[in-house]
Amino acid sequence: MDTFATALPALGEAWALILQPMVLGYLVLGVVMGLAVGVFPGLGGIAGLSLLLPFMFGMDPVLGLALMIGMVAVVPTSDTFASVLMGIPGSSASQATVLDGFPLAKKGQAARALSAAFTSSLFGGLVGAFFLTLFILVARPIVLAFGLPEMLMITVLGLSMVAVLAGRVALKGLAAAGLGMMIGTIGEADAGGSLRMATYDIPYLTDGLKLVIVGLGIFAVPEIVSLLRQDRSIAKDAKLGAGWGAGVKDWVANKWLSVRCSLIGVLVGVIPGLGGSVVDWIAYGHAVQTTKDKSNFGKGEIRGVIGPESSNNAKEGGGLVPTLLFGIPGSGSMAIFIGAIALLGSGDIEVGPSMLRDNLDITYSIVWLLALANVVGTLLCIAASGGIAKLTTVRFTYLAPFLFMLISFAAFQSGQNFEDLLALFVIGLIGIFLRRFDWSRPAFLIGFVLSNPVEKFSNQAFQIASFRFRKSFEEGMDYLFSPIVIVLIIVTVVSVVLGIRQAKSIMAEGDVQSGSKRAPVVFLLVIAGYLVTALINASLIPDYNMTDKIVPLVIGGIALACCLVMLVQMMLRPETDVIFADKEIAGEDADAPFGLWSTLAWFAGLIVATWFVGFILALLGFLTAFLRVRAGASWGRTLLLTACGIAMMCVMAGALNRDFPPGLLQDAVDLPWPLK
Amino acid sequence: MTIKNLVSSVALTTLLAAPALAEVDFSGKTIEWVIPFSETGGSAKWANFFAPLLAEELPGNPTVVVKFMPGAGSTKGANWFQEQEHEDGTLLFGTSGSTQFPYLLGDPRVRYEYSDWTPVMASGTGGVAYLNPEDGAKFDGTANNLKDIDFIYGSQGATRLDLVPLLAWEMLGMNVEPVFGIKGRGDGRLMFERGEATIDYQTSSSYLGAAADLVAQGKAVPMMTWGALDADGNIVRDPTFPEMPTFKEVCEATEGCETSGEAWDAWKAFFVAGFPVQKIAFLPAGTPDEVRDTYAAAFDAVRNRADFAEIASKRVGKYDVFVGESARAATDAGTSVSSGAKDFVTNWLKEAYGVSLN
User: B184 to chain A: nearest residue by CA?
Assistant: First the structure.
């Protein structure tokens, strides 16, 4: 009871700290900056916070916190714009939102999807704050109860969502997830440092591929290319249906789903080391499993938006627990946040175990500033959503060049290598074919995201478990099968069983027709070929580095087995079977006026030109040529739009102090920024 | 600290520095301080702490911005810096132990050469190793009673800074099994708190921030520090923890552990690179002396601020800051290792952990 007796006055002090006009002013300023940064895919809170860092030195702590929290809190809110409107996952927190949000936009219901998403975000943020106010006092032992086996099981639970999202042919979904995991293992292994499908001669590969690039490549590139080929607006017939009021009503109708997903968000967010990567998938899976009529998922089911969006803002609150209590950042932006707090004031706020004891009022200020920032951010976003949704009625050919510009810039920011652009293109190509042949892209992405945690936690848990088993059998069993692990195993099994039953009705890619055998077989053989290569590559790792080879061997083996079974099925079944699904046979893609390769060539052109003359000059040529030739705009319009695009890029990069990809020209001659 | 203090110390240093360095002026310029790590690491914290202070002290008060160029464990950024040449003195580069270790170990990705660069400031930290209470009770200033115990340690990798503690424990005859693949020392501490790991170490500032709390609650027992370097390059007690024995003392007291010979030399070489000379700020190859001296004077002014010890200890830990000639000497000590020591470590990494760097 003692703790609660000190908590109440601290809570009062926290509110007194927050409710000052200056503090609220800084909070709103932070929120506006956060929204501006968050709208651009791939930048996120890290870029924004780094921008604020120079001002934090010696700043009044509450003001500095208000500014930073305002910014961090709304990034997962505003990146919803890109996910819903363009099908671009702005960050790992909004991957699952793309699945149903974008189809809604295509139906002309972008405003509805956005406002439902924002209302859910708001609610999730508030639930998170309420929950934390109490929970943070007792959190320490609970957080410590989550050891490696527990974290492994949560990751496996996230992975089990593949069952729900596998699509019509379960084997294909499994193989897609396996392929995603194998792509996730590329690079230097965490444990022993062995190289997998990489070489020191290509340093880019040793770091592995970044989530931003894979997310953009798998979801954004195929959608952009497909829409561009069809030469239409995102919203079919360029009409907007339901407005933002409908979205709020949707949320009211599904408020209990929102409550449950918010709690999932906080709880998973609390566990350090998992971060946001699994939360939205678990929430999406939960939304699917608790919906009676599952036929609309993947085609624009509003519950598929409300679930993940409720969880991702709640997760931010949960993520504060490890950050504040243990001084262990739950994400990249939290790491900067911890560093920045040390710069504030006289530097006596120390994030870590002493935080609760010495600075409980500050702790509560942080929790409730986060909640307030959510409220302000959401209201601004809802107010803007009706207008921004109109973008979906614009002829897509006018949007596409700017989207190519944005995703290239976002990809480059992840590693600041020219190779980032190449990787985006290659992954984009994989995404295009996964989509065409109805291989589950969400399953691929879940596999990729969870590849590293699965490998890390299973290796480490195995090592510690074998250590305990050496002491005594009992101790080992106690370690591996704690009550938490057993509960998680049951949840996982139930979710897989239910998921497999339901998967057939969830068609993320719509009803894809089958027709010819040749193309799907060729694609399958290419995938199997890659898996074989990766398997051989992994088997060459010496045995003393077993930790680095065991996961690629097992996962690659399973994925390859799936491919082989499918190959046999393909030989036996008629060409009308669902296993031969191919979007080029019938439907929107097949009827599109433009071909795949000629459309993709534009994107390739931008990348090749960047290689020679650097990004900005390449962009100048690309925008002009695209708008004039492909979109058929008048010269006046072409030049105006090109100037706007370049100006936008320069303002954004200039404000955030970012560079553009340089080319051969920049190697030869010194040019002033932004050309350098 | 008051504004008055600040103004007077700035004024004083400007007066002192001005006559000798009249020719270098950064008015209206922007200095880029490139860090070969991501925004989230310890080096980012270090540069972000020094950047505004440096800006105040450099002639003309330029803007100092910190830029990040992560990749390939910092070798990407360092390889890039190797290609840079002096232009107008507005490029600064920061390295850390994670840049020095691959260089010392002959990592194939390393295409940079420390001796080409111009060091202007170097700073370091210390480290403290601690045990769980049960095994800690058996620690009596020697590791004699710890030799039959199997320890578990959450490690970032044997070729990283963790090489120093792992080799130290090995030299003491302790059986420490590293669990590789954690992302930072904070994760290691959490593993220790959960009881999964039974031994751990933290750098000085993180020890004070979090692990000392565990010691106060009886959940951890401090074992030893890695020590600090005196002016002659000898290992002495860490000034932050004068009551704690150093590894050197524990080693001397422990049967079978020698403070001479190739194992000791190797340990010491990597300890110096990883701790007392952990972070170094460089100007590119070909930097003229007056530019170097301008930076050295500015960093000197920073470390002589009346409030420096106070603000530094809270934000980046109590670092010894070397500037000018002593930065050069520290850099030499931190980036050179005898071929005997290198071979010893390479062999040991191969035999103990199967790590090969080729």
Answer: A328
Q: Quick one: tokens of A565?
A: 């079974």
Q: Enumerate the domain spans of chain A.
A: 2-562, 592-668
In chain B, CATH 3.40.190.150 covers: 3-124+277-335
B314·A342 Cβ contact <8 A: yes
Q: Where in chain B is the domain with CATH 3.40.190.10?
A: 127-273
- ipTM of the modeled complex: 0.84
Q: What homologous superfamily is domain B127-273 in, according to CATH?
A: Periplasmic binding protein-like II (3.40.190.10)
Fold of B3-124+277-335: D-Maltodextrin-Binding Protein; domain 2 (3.40.190)
Give the best residue of A57, A205, A659 to mutate against chain B (max B CB count within 10 A).
Answer: A57
CB contact under 8 A, A332 and B314: no
* Cβ pair A192:B353 closer than 8 A: yes
Summarised one tens digit per residue, pLDDT across range B43-73 is 888 888 899 899 999 999 998 888 888 877 7
Chain B residue whose CA is closest to A188: B72
Chain B residues near residue A319 by CB distance under 8 angstroms: none
* Residue of B331, B357, B234 lying closest to B278 (CA atoms): B331
d(CA A676, CA A659): 8
Segment (H or E) for B95: strand B91-95
Nearest residue in chain B measured CA to CA from A145: B194
List pLDDT tens digits, range B109-162.
Answer: 888 999 999 999 999 888 999 999 999 999 999 999 999 999 999 988 888 889
- Cβ(A287)–Cβ(A250) under 8 Å? no
Burial label, B70 (beta-carbon count in 10 A; 0-12, 13-18, 19+): buried
CA pair distance B333, A347, nearest whole angstrom: 32
Question: Looking at beta carbons, which residues of chain A come within 8 Å of B67?
Answer: 657
